[in-house]
């Protein structure tokens, strides 16, 4: 009998990372989460869910700490990695406290192995939102573009998920999906204004973990309401 699926989480304490983790635990999935401050996750879930969650204390820039998240009982690699690391904005200009965190963190994960990105093939948000992204979020988008290039250039299978502007609260709205091949361009479009973090996490778990049919392997999925 095959062993249960195990997911490693980097960035599971807030937002869509936390929402994905919650969905995974609800589905009795074994999870390992790297956390600088374990108390941020401890106590969030019931005892039966916590029994399926291993929290590794450490920093995503520490290769040894990352390796602890990538192996199950020190014997084999996890089945899936959910990476939702980001940086906090410090002021109204949305300047980041760590403007290169995404590219440095994913580089560490890739070394340990061996919210929005910006497409080079056209817009994935309405034009006015694109302008806001460019002028207000230039720094984080440059970081995420660099991160995506590292992922695409690796030998690992991946799915990059780009969401439209993220809000709080779960909804019953349908999630629309656009697909892009990093090398060959757009396969389908999904242009929208916003989506909730909870709906992002639910979509990631349901489509990339629970019912993964390979549709998004080595592809970029743009999701929105």
From TrEMBL:
Annotated Gene3D superfamilies: NAD(P)-binding Rossmann-like Domain (3.40.50.720)
Matches recorded under PROSITE patterns: PROKAR_LIPOPROTEIN (PS51257)
Domain NAD(P)-binding per the UniProt entry, residue ranges: 11-208
Pfam families named in the record: NAD_binding_10
Membrane-crossing residue ranges in chain numbering: none
GO molecular function, one term: riboflavin reductase (NADPH) activity
Keyword annotations: Signal
Record's signal peptide: 1-19
Entry protein name: NAD(P)H-binding domain-containing protein
